[in-house]
Structures are given as structure tokens and as C-alpha cells.
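hey so u asked for the seq, here:
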Amino acid sequence: MNERRLWQWSGLDEGGTPCGGLAWAADRATALQQLYQQNIWPLKVKRQTVARQYWNLTYKIHFIRQLATLLQAGIALPQGLAMLAEQHSRAQWRALLQELAQQVTQGVPFSDALKAWPGVFPPLFIALIRTGEITGKLDECCQRLAVQQEEQQALRKKVVKALRYPGIIFVMALLVTIGMARFVLPEFAAIYRAFNAPLPALTHGVMAFSAFITASGHWLALITATLITVILRCRRNPHWQWQEQNLLLRLPLVGELVRGQRLSQIYTILAMTQQAGLPLLQGLEAVVQTLSSPFWRQMLERIMRKIADGVPFWKTLEQEKGFTPLCRQLIYTAEETGSMDLMLARLAHWHTGQTHERADSLSSTLEPLMMVVIGLIVGTLVIAMYLPVFQMGDAMSGAG
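ran it, C-alpha cells below
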């Protein structure tokens, strides 16, 4: 987000009528100066909290889609922005849309107005809006952008859900095991010690594990918390992120899922920018700005440098392991036939479909597998707890 802050003000206009509203300004003095320039006598200026979560992709998709609908209905851009500002539920969005409407009314290009908010609108938004302004098809570009962002958001959520599921199951199994070892097994151990009977090897091993958990539980919790903290801090490091992404691509099932999601994002944006009339390098630059992974960003930056040196697009993919042989073959065909936008759209559609299928397959494969693992863990603990009871029962019946 930029340095401007949100201020809520109330005051009197030229006629002495009470009025109020929201304004963006770097500080209180600037906010007051802006009000004086509008011939408003401020009575109260209070800073408002700006929540970063309200700048998320969902709000931006709603804004672009609603704007596209208004433009297609024949409403002028300034009026459309003003209408969206009036009906928005979030104060910071109302203030932002009001400012955009004012700037567009004053003759500032819409893309330049968005560019002043780099923390809200990514370069892809600005590039497509500028293309829409140049071609006179701003409504189509907004609609295309909204559809692309919605599809990528849905795909991203599905991939994250498929990758998160095994982790949740593993944590649940670990908590169940620790809970039984910490609270249930010690009670059985006390009973068996009272009988002073020999224990089976399985029960003896489980009891030793329970004793270790009971005696060292606080140290294990401290070590676990430290490891989690270190990992979370390391994940902010670009080198760590590069290695993490490289490792994910090498994993079976998971690697293909991650690769498919990234390639779907790359080809969807490239196809959209090609259809909008942007040059290939500019489209790749827009893709780079939308990628958070240093691994993929560096890969595309290498591709861009090679293309700038005159190397064909398909040739630049040969040394990049993130791209598949199918990518190279189809892009080679596209460059030979001059149908780059069509071929990129097909690649995007194919990778999106494959990624959806892999996410469903991963979930359906891991669900029974993780259930079996949890069953084995809990079953082993239960058998170890009750096996001495069965043996003592057999011994007592034999003695009788």
C-alpha cells in the first residue's frame, strides 16, 4: 500500500451546510489542505484504520466485474466509479473509488490513476486497463480480466486445499498419539505395575514411549514451537522459497499439481495479454509481476532476456525444467503458424483442466491412505494397552 492514509472528516461547505466524507492524504495537514481547496471548513478530521485484508483479490474481482457490467450498459467511466463508490460496503474502498472517479473526471487516464496504487492493483490490471483505453474496448478488457482472476483464484484454492489436507490429517494423527501417550497410557501403566505381571514387547515399547512423552513433553513442545518459528522466518527468505519450490516440483503427485497450477496461471495471463494486443515481452513482464515464487520469477526473467536477444520463445523453454515438452511443441507450432494467442489459450485450458483432475485425484488417493495410517497408529496403541489384559485373563482362566 502506498504512503497515503485514510481520513474521515466532517465540516461545513460554502453555504454553511454540514457535510462529511473520506479522503486519502499522507498526513492530517495535507488532508486539511485538500478540504480548504474544496472550499470546505473542516470541523473534525479523524484517521481511519486501513485493513490490508480488504485489498484482497476477492474485492478486486468484484470491483472489476461490476465496472465491466456498468461500462457494457453504456455508463461512462467516471459515473460508473462514482456509483460503485456509493454502494461499496468498505470505507477504504469507497474512498479509493471516489478518488479514482475524481481523477478520471479531471482527465487522468484510468490506468494512470490505478498505477498510483501499486499496493492495491497489480501490474496486470494496469496493463490490461491501458490496453482497453488504447483499443476503446475497456469493458471487454475488464470482463476478461475478471474472468481470468476468478478462474485462477478458484484453481489456487483447489490446489491449496489438496496440498493442505494431508498436513491436517497428519497433525490430527500426531495430536491423537501424543494425547493417548500423555494421558491414557500412564493410567494403564499404573494398573499393570500394581499386578507386577510381565508385559508383552509391544506394550513395553508403547509404555516406554509414553514415559518419554510424559517426562519430556515440555521440551518437545518447546523444540516444536522453535522449529515452526524458524521455518516461518526462513520462508520469507527468497533463497529458501526458491529451494522449497524446486523441491516441490520433484515430489510425486505434488510436483505435477504445483507445476500445473503455475503453468495454468502463466498461459492464462499470456493468452489474455496476446488477445488484448500486448507484445509478448510485455505480457511476460505482467506474468512476472503476478508470481510470488522467486523460482518461477527467475525462470521467466531468463526467458525474457533470451527473447530480447532474439531467441525464439519455444527455444527458450528447452533449458527450463518448469515447462513440459508439450509446451515447447505447441509454442513452436504457434510461432510457425502465427496463432500464438489461440495456442496459449489452449495450453491454459489444458493445464487448468489437468490441474483440477490432479487435485481431485490427490484428495481421493490420500483420504483412504491417511485413514489407514491413523487406524494403524490408534489400533497399535489400543492393542498395546489391552494385550496384557487378555493375557492376564487367559492366565486366570487357566489357573481356575
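The chain has three domains: 5-50, 54-121, 147-400. Strands lie at 5-12, 18-25, 41-48.
lmk if thats what u needed
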